[in-house]
What we know:
It is built from 2 helices and 33 strands. By secondary structure, it is mainly β.
Amino acid sequence: MKNIRTKLVLTIYMIICPFSFAIIAQSAKISTFDFTENPSNAIRKAIKSDYDTIIINKQFKPWVIQPIHFQNIINKVIIIEKGVEIHAINGGFGKSGDCLFKFDSCRNIEIIGNGAQLKMNKKEYTKGEWRHGISIRNCKDIKITDISIEGSGGDGVYISGNSSIKGTYSENISINRLISFNNKRQGLSIISAKNVLINKCVFKETLGTLPGAGIDLEPNNKFDRLESIVFLDCIFEDNDHAGILLALHKLEASSKPISVEFVKCLIRNNHNETNKYVASEIVFGANKVSPVKGSVIFDNCLIENSKWGMFFSRKVAQSYTVTFRDCTARNICKNNTYPAILLEVPDYFEGSYDLGGYVFDNVLIEYETKVPTIMIRGSRINTLKSLSNVSGNLTLKTFNKVDKVAFIQYDPMNNVMVDLQINNIPINQ
Length: 429
């Protein structure tokens, strides 16, 4: 416990430390760069100028801009004055990869939002899923604070390496007090990154194209990485799919081990019945043959007010370990169809697999319906070899007598290193 918390503090320090540079005297307002004729060009000129601090100042109407692409920009502070709105121009984002702001191979950039609103026109983007609000690609030392992003044609924020160069990633990224909502694909996607802190952010109301999650950690190939990724005091709610999606199928055993932490986060009321993906608040996935190693930790998190279960997984036991520590899931499973925890064999038709790799340390699950607490689902042709490496303690509170663990097409005599204690307490106690 002490080592994990020390690691978290060190990670946050490493992320924040690069932004210790001060805002010095050389500053300029965007409005001084001929902004009336072309606000987009004014922003481009200002950022490329010798001024180290650029101020997007409040006008009597929103800034209406075309896609802005910054490449190889270094050592800039961008201050957005309180009350500023930045809108995507109607009809100006014709290419599927057009983003409101795209940062490509940039270094040492800080955006101080002061509550600024970034708005795109989601209804206009009927094709494609990559018109992001803010795209951060192959960047280092980026800090974003106090903004909202809504209506993008892709993700509110997208973080990756350079897609043309395998093994690249963004590093030392800090996003604080972001509200990302009503985006088409995800509130946030992380493809390849190291040392990322997402602090006090809200990801909600994603809707438009699959997956439709609050956040999606989804590398594109085995050379990508998810290293020291921390979500602290964040909220994931009312999204079309899961609040948290870990789609790690393209990482392999030879990939960098992952390290992801969710600390003091709230996950609630995610997944719409019309979304064709599996219904759950949290979803874990991994390569079924050669899975990535590492750890995912949920520490002092709350999952609540859900029609569905706490999490769904087809992750094999040989992959990364998931730990829930001091977590609560309450008022869940309201649809009376999915169990609180569902582990499903990754392939029904061929192969032989071990499900598992979970630790439950002081976890409370509370619900009123009659579904099992945990369900292990195998296949008719016995592709589920074992349930392996599952341990810890759960406290279950229900009105009804329910099956603690239900097995479908699987014999629990095949369990390997399973030591899970479930304490059942009537809900009226």
